[in-house]
Amino acid sequence: MRKITLFTLIMTVVSTMLVAQMKPEDASTIKKSNPLVQDWNTPYQTPPFDKIKTEHYKPAILYSLDQAKKDVNAIIENKEKPSFENTIVALENAGSLLNRVLGVFFNINEANTSNELQKIAEEMSPELTRYSNDINMNPELFAKVKKVYDSKDDIPLTTEQRMLLDKTYKGFLKSGALLEGNQKEEFRKISEELSLLSLKYQKNNLSDQNAYMKVITNKKDLAGIPQYAIDAAKETAKQRKVKGWVFTLDYPSYLPFITYADNRELRKELWTASNKVANNNNENDNKENIIKIANLRLRMAQLLGYSSYAEYALTDRMAENPTKVLSFIDNLLESSMPFAKKDLQMVTDYAHSKGFVGDIQRWDWSYWSEKLKNEKFSINPEMTKPYFQLEKVREGIFMLADKLYGLEFRENKDITKYHEDVVTYEVWDKANNKFMAILYMDFFPRESKRSGAWMTSFREQKIENNEDVRPLIQMVCNFTKPTAKTPSLLTFDEYNTFLHEFGHCLHGMLSECTYQSTSGTSVYRDFVELPSQIMENFATEKEFLDMFAVHYQTGEKIPEDLIKKIKASEQYLQGYSSVRQLFLGLVDMGWNNTKELLKGDVESIERKSSKKADLLPIVEGSIMSTQFGHIFAGGYAAGYYGYKWAEVLDADAYSLFKEKGIFNKEVSTSFRNNVLSKGGKKHPMELYKAFRGQEPTNKALLIRSGFIK
Length: 709
Description:
By secondary structure, the chain is of the alpha+beta class. The protein has helices at 6-13, 24-33, 54-77, 84-93, 96-111, 115-136, 139-150, 159-174, 181-211, 227-239, 251-260, 264-274, 287-303, 309-313, 322-353, 362-377, 381-384, 390-405, 492-509, 530-536, 542-548, 560-568, 574-592, 602-610, 629-632, 642-660, 665-676, 684-692, 699-705, and strands at 214-216, 245-247, 407-411, 423-429, 434-442, 454-459, 462-464, 467-469, 472-476. Residues 5-21 have low confidence and may be disordered.
C-alpha cells in the first residue's frame, strides 16, 4: 500500500496554514531551538530523530505554517503578469519547510505514535485544512492560476510542466475555488470536519485493536498452532507480564491462530474480535464516524456539481467514472464467481470428508483451506518459513533490485532513527555511482504502530535550485518478530508483502522528475499499485529464490521440489481470492458512490453494497467498514478497485518479463525508464504503452488466475 497521509494530501494542493502570524520574538526562539525547523546538518539532510522530541512538533508546525503563509502571500501580491514560473512553480515550492515538518510528523504519527502525538494531530489538522482552504478559495490566487492555465497552448511547456499545470488548476477546482458565499463556507467546514474524522477513525482502530488480547493458560488449547507462533505468544505474555501465552489481533499473531488452531471455539472468538474492531459500541466505535464521513463527502461532491463522491474522486483516475469502475468489477466478478464457488465447494467437501459437520463458517475457512492445500500440494508454512529468514529475504530483494535496476544498498548506521527497530540504507545506482535515496525499513509490530504495511516518504524527489534532491523513503510493515529461539521467519504472505511494499519504494527511489507533485508515487491512484504488484510476480520464480532462499539453520538452498510445490499452489483458491478483493471494492463504492445521504445501520449498508460478492454465511455484527482504513483514513476512497485494476496491468506487464526472461535487462530498463522513473510526468496509459507497446487486456490476469487456458 502506498500510504496517503493528511500531509501528502496537503502537499498535492500546495502547502499549509495559520490564521494569525506568530510574534517575531516567538519565531526567533523557535528558529534557534527547534531541530525540526533548523538546517539539518545530518547525512543527506535526514531528520535528526535523536534531537526531535514530542514537544517540538506543535511549535515547528506553527512556525512553518507562518512561513508558508508568507510564501503564498508573495505569489498573490506579485504584480508581474502571471506565468508558469511565478505562479505554478512558485505554488509548488511554497511552504517547503512546512512540507518537511509535516513529512516527519504525520509519518511518525503512523509508525510510532503516542497519546501526545495524536492530540497534536487533532489540534493541527483543522488548522492545516483551514489554511489549505484559504489558498484554494483565494480568488486572486485562482485568477492567476486560471490565467496561466487558459494560456497553456500559447506558452512552451514540457509534458511534465503541462501535467503540473493541469494538476494545479484541477486541484483548485476540486477544492472549491469556484464556490461562492455560503457554499464556500460550507465547503470549508466540511473539509475541516473530514480531516478530524479521519484521524479519529484511525485512532479508534488502533486503540480497539490494541485493547484485545487472548490469554491462553491451557496448553491443550494450542493444539495445531505452529511452534513459531506459540513461541511468539510466550514472548508476548512475558512482555505483558501475564502467565501462559498471549495472542493479539496483530497480523503475525492472529493469522497463524486462525489458520491452524484446532480449537474451533477459540478460532471463532479471535475471528469475531478481529472482525468487530471499532464496532463494539464503546469509546472506540467507528460506526457514527463512517456515516458522517460518507455524508460529508457526498455533500462536498455535490457542492462542486458532482452526483457522488466517487464521481468527484474518479476525475483523476484511469477508470474515469463510477460506471466504468462498477463495470470493471462486475466483469471480473462474472469471471471469478464460478471458480470461487468451486473453491468453496472443494473446501467444504474436504472438511466433510474429515468429519466436519455443517456449513463452513468464516472462522473455519482459513483452517480447512490450509489443511486442504497442505494435502493437495504437500506444502505448508512450516515447510517454507525456514527459508524466508527476514534478513535473507531483505538481502534477496536487494539482489533483485540490483539484477533489474543496478541498485546497491549500503547500511548507514550514522543516520538517526525514530525507533530502534528501524534499519537505514543508502541506495546507489551502480552504473554511474549516483546516490538515489535513503531507505528506512521498519519491520515489526508494536502498540505505537498501526496495523498493515505501507510505503511513504519523509521527503519526495524533486529538482531544487538545479540540484536533484533525492527522496527519503519509509517502508513500514508488521512482520513476525524474532523470538529467543528463532530469528524472524516470514510466512509466504509476509514475504510477498515485502516484495509489494518494496515495489512502491522503487517507484519513489528511482524517480527522475522536476517537481515533487509529479515525482515518485504521485500518480493516478489506480496506477500506483502497478510497481508494487509487479514485484509479487517474482515471489515464486526459481531463478530468484535460488539467489537467497536458504534454510536459516543448515544453509541448504530451498529444494527444487518445494519451489515446484509453491508454484503448483499459485492458482489455489484464486477464484475465492479474486471475489474477496472485488467484495472490498464493492464495499468501497457502496460508501462513496451513493447519491443520497446515508442513514441508519452501517452493517446493513455494507451488506447491501457487497451482497453479490458474498460467499460464506453472514455473521451478524462483523463488518469490514469500521476498520477499512484504506478508504476512511488512507486516501483510497472510491479507489480500492485500483488493486484489481493494477492486477490487470501487472499481469500484462509481467508477461513481457516472462517472454524475454525475468532478469532481461532490456525489459527491466524499459520498465524503469518508462514507468518507475517517470512518476506522474505523463498520463499513466501513455507510460504503460511506452513500456508495453500496447494497452493492457484482462487475458494475462485470467490466465495467471487459472480462469482460462
